[in-house]
Amino acid sequence: MPRAGYKIKENLTAAKKSEAKNIYFKIAGSFIALTVILVLAVLYLGFAKATLIIIPTQEKVTDSLNVTIVDMDSTAGMAQGEILGIVRQVPLEQSQTFTATGKKILGEEVTGQVTIINDYLKNQPLVATTRLLSQDNKLFRLKNTVNVPAGGRVVAEVYADEAKPDMAIGPSKFTIPGLWAGLQDKIYAQSQSPMAYQEKVKYIITQSDIDKAVSGLKLSLLTNAKKEISQAYQEYEQSIIEVDNNSISQEVQGKVGEEKDKFTIKIKTKITVAAFKDNDIYSQVRAKLINALADDKEIVELRRADTAYHLGGINLSQGTATVDVDFVAKVTLKDNAKIIKKNNLAGLNNEQLKAYLNSLPEVAGYEVKFFPAFLKKMPNLVDRIEVVIKK
């Protein structure tokens, strides 16, 4: 009995030691797990990083500017914002000959040429109006008297006995009915080209002819004036030309209803010229645009090809002209623009980040680069978030 009791006591002691050992292992395991979690949290907070690359929108800006051009020979002083150029009035004249389109039909005719062949032993004279009969029985007549030598041939003008469109026949052989029947196979005519039908007309000058001619001549005058001005003032890239309608005078060599094929018109006028250098305008346009922009925006595109010029007013006595300048530019955010606050990004997942960025009109697109790459949300520490604006 004493020995059995001793064994039971020994077993209880061993069980208590095993239980204590298990508790120790559980505590140690929990401590290790918490340590790992803490280390991972420290690593996450210390090394997790996100780079947000913003693609900003490009805003189209349309604006205008008024610039005063001062003639280089003007004695007036230049004020702030005025630029030096050319402000002149130049006399021009041009003449051109035009074709009248009004017509009076006097008649019709069908004409052509034939070669008369004489295979007989004697010369054969043929008087004007001699009849020639085609193979399809179309009657033509000689226009002039001819003498066809024996064994020779002569080219002669002919016309249709009846001037109708169907008489414009193609190449054909012609007999001469007025000759003795025994000679008709030896003396005959042959055409190589078709006969031509046409109307006999007289051309008349109409009011429409004069109106169209004047309009066309004015356009031609302006086109030539631009060429002459660009050559005369080559140092100026831009020039605006305007016709002084009050100074236009015209001289028409012909009148409405007159029977003339052609008529000549001469136009005299004065044109106003304002010429200036492209860079002088461009610098003022750029300066105005920069002054009007918000501090976080900058110009990304300002093309001279998108700039339009119009003559606003002119003062020839002072040698000045006002030019209206219309321009178009594209602006976007600067690299250091602070449109996005990092505090608003901290801890956001992809869906939340997408919703937030899509709500900003300045953002056209974006890209997020995480480190480590398996991360799926923005870091909680704002100093681990980098925002980059990409142009």
Can you characterise this structure?
- This protein is of the alpha+beta class.
- It folds into five domains: 1-47; 50-55 and 335-389, no CATH class; 59-87 and 277-332; 88-100 and 204-271; 102-201, Elongation Factor Tu (Ef-tu), domain 3, CATH 2.40.30.
- The protein has four helices and 19 strands.
- It has helices at 2-47, 207-232, 278-292, 350-358, and strands at residues 49-56, 59-71, 83-99, 102-118, 124-126, 131-134, 139-142, 146-148, 153-160, 173-175, 187-190, 196-204, 238-253, 262-276, 297-301, 308-315, 320-333, 363-371, 385-389.
- Strands 2, 3, 13, 14, 15, 16 and 17 form a seven-stranded mixed β-sheet that branches. It has a six-stranded antiparallel beta barrel with strand order 4-9-7-6-10-11. Strands 18-1-19 form a three-stranded mixed β-sheet, with no helix packed on it.
- A hairpin with a 4-residue loop joins strand 16 and strand 17.
- The longest helix has 46 residues, at 2-47.
- The two termini are 95 Å apart.
Radius of gyration: 50 Å
| First and last CA, distance | 95 Å
Shape label:
elongated
CATH architecture assignment name of the largest domain? Beta Barrel
Count the E strands. Answer: 19
Total domains? 5
Q: Helices and strands, in N-to-C order?
A: HEEEEEEEEEEEEHEEHEEEHEE
Q: CATH top level of the largest domain?
A: Mainly Beta
Strand content: 35-45%
The biggest sheet amounts to: 7 strands, mixed
In the CATH hierarchy, the third-tier topology of the largest domain is known as: Elongation Factor Tu (Ef-tu), domain 3
Query: Could you say which structural class the secondary elements and strand pairing correspond to?
Result: alpha+beta
How many helical stretches? 4
Flag low-confidence runs: none
